[in-house]
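Lecture 7 notes: from sequence to structure.

We start with a single chain of 237 residues. Read the sequence below before looking at the structure.
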Amino acid sequence: SASLAHELNQPLGALLMNAQACLRWLNRNPPDLNAAIRAAERTMRDGERASQIVKTTKAMLSRTPIASEKVDLLELVEETRTLLEYEIERQNVSVDLMSPPNLPPANASKSELQQVLINLITNAMQAMEEAGSRVRRISVRLSTSETGFVVMSVSDTGPGLSSEAIENVFEPYFTTKPFGMGMGLAICKSTVESRGGKLSVRNNDNSGATFEIALPVESKGRLTRMYDVPQMVARIG
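Now the structure, written as tokens:
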């Protein structure tokens, strides 16, 4: 229930903000119909994302396998940037994307991986906002490794992480936020590992932190679910 509440909080919050924005554009004199349409389209995408989270959770609870697929990471990042467009603009954040040509697709679940990326980008924006960072930039870099993995790194220009946070940031219920639940990164790590991948974090040399996702090009995971329930229970208990 804690993980589901965390996962649904972001799309439902975005849905509410976009619906409010749509009403503001319609209440203008004259109404800005183009802006209202864009806000309504974002509202629909947020609703679909919340629905997908519920479907994924139901599949996990019923032990229904969630098959891996070939995921175009460049396309995934672009779609995610569009999903978070309102928040990115509201917080005056720039999101840069760098990718080599002919990047091979990752073997994963697109909906799961998108939720991981949303968590990482949202966390980065919140960290920069709370720290009052003058430069608010998120850099998403795509690359390949010699070990047969595709790598997606998400870097920010925030304050970085303390040594305690670096050590415990993926543990359930560990959080540096005043009202955080400490579930987001624990879910992200379990999601990535369930596909045979790795999720790691490091501080940058100058400022901010980098979260790095390495995913296999060929299937190495157990074609399963949102995250491993026995593993999560063991770690929590």
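DSSP finds eight helices and seven strands in the chain. Keep this in mind for problem set 3.
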